[in-house]
Specification:
By secondary structure, the chain is an alpha+beta fold. It has 13 helices and twelve strands. The strands form two sheets. Strands 1, 2, 3, 6, 7, 8, 9, 10, 11 and 12 form a ten-stranded mixed sheet that branches. It has a two-stranded antiparallel sheet with strand order 4-5.
Length: 358
């Protein structure tokens, strides 16, 4: 959606000033290594901790939605203490569609190693204290968080009214892919680097003539998963500190996402890129809108000072908390409905609507 920051947002913005030299050799690094140099060159500014209606139209947030009404009581069911012992209590949650999600959530908040009595490990570490706490293990990699995010999306998409997308005679399905995908970023006088996501949401469909299933390679939403202490040490309950390296990586993924989608169009249009990031058990939506003018400047030697790329982050959703899980569910249903509506500025969806005569 079109976006202009208001006075309150402008007062809290984080900007990076300096010359925009898109032919600088210093920019020629993978997207995972982007930092302040790229933030300056691409004129990126951060607006953090925004309400969801500043990231996508509020009309798509579920109020009386059949899937939301069914799933909200289910996702709120366990307390944080219940989650810490979910494996031992999972019999109490038979029939809850989020059971596997809760198991992955327990894994993400596990801080200790379970040494089995009778093993050499237990002999060296005989402590009887709990192996579970309310904070994530700072040495744990991002895999539990990545699995947690993909399972959460899959559980929601299990409902046909959420996954089905119909354009004309063509039926599409929204599908989660956890495989890492590379997206090419072209800038300056022909420089190219890649940005990798941690999977995402893609379109799949069955060919009307051959009957074979076609899997999309251009993301509608990209995923980014990190352990809780990525970029900065953060104690349990502490707000995430600002990191140029983190914002730089988000910039790379958003720009790569937009370029991949605009390449699907015969006639380029403005593009919005959506990124779901999960750090430990904190889930955020990150959005940026790339105008055709901006994308044209990216292919030149510099971006003028009059151009500004606003990277917008939502407030975090703490998945350990009932309120955080409820907010995350509403957000995901909202962005899925927005994508399916055909009003989003995502190249692949624009191309699908155009092809189907919508």
């Amino acid at each position: 959606m079109k976006f202009e920051p208001n006075e309150e947002e402008l007062a809290k913005r984080i900007e990076h000033y300096g010359p925009s030299d898109l032919n600088s050799p210093k920019l020629m690094v993978p997207g995972s290594d982007w930092n302040s140099q790229q933030l300056v060159a691409f004129r990126a500014s951060l607006l953090d901790d925004l309400p969801l209606d500043r990231l996508f139209p509020s009309e798509y947030m579920p109020e009386d939605h059949p899937v939301s009404n069914t799933l909200l009581p289910k996702i709120r069911e366990p307390s944080e203490d219940d989650l810490k012992e979910f494996l031992s209590k999972r019999g109490d949650y038979i029939g809850n569609p989020f059971g596997t999600f809760f198991i992955r959530l327990q894994s993400a908040i596990t801080t200790g190693v379970a040494y089995i009595p009778g093993t050499t490990g237990h002999a060296r570490n005989p402590s009887s204290t709990s192996d579970l706490s309310s904070s994530s293990n700072e040495d744990k990699d991002e895999e539990p968080s990545k699995q947690m995010l993909s399972i959460l999306l899959d559980t929601i998409l299990f409902y046909p009214q959420m996954s089905d997308v119909r354009y004309g005679n063509q039926k599409y399905l929204l599908a989660v892919e956890t495989q890492q995908r590379s997206m090419e970023i072209s800038f300056g006088s022909g420089s190219k680097v890649t940005a990798k996501n941690d999977g995402g949401l893609y379109l799949t469909y069955k060919d009307l003539y051959t009957g074979s299933v076609k899997h999309g390679i251009v993301p509608l939403i990209s995923f980014e998963a990190k352990r809780r202490h990525a970029h900065h040490h953060r104690a349990a309950g502490e707000e995430e500190k600002y990191s140029e390296a983190l914002l730089g990586q988000e910039l790379a993924e958003l720009l790569g996402h937009a370029m991949a989608n605009v390449n699907e169009l015969v006639q380029p249009t403005d593009q919005e890129a959506l990124l779901l990031t999960i750090h430990g058990t904190h889930l955020k939506l990150v959005v940026a809108r790339f105008t055709t003018a901006y994308l044209t400047y990216v292919k030149s030697h510099s971006i003028p000072e009059s151009e500004r790329l606003w990277i917008r982050r939502s407030s975090p959703f703490q998945l350990k908390d009932r309120e955080g899980r409820e907010g995350a569910l509403r957000m995901i249903i909202g962005i899925l409905e927005y994508i399916k509506s055909g009003t989003s500025e995502i190249g692949l969806m624009q191309a699908a609507f155009s092809y189907s005569g919508q």
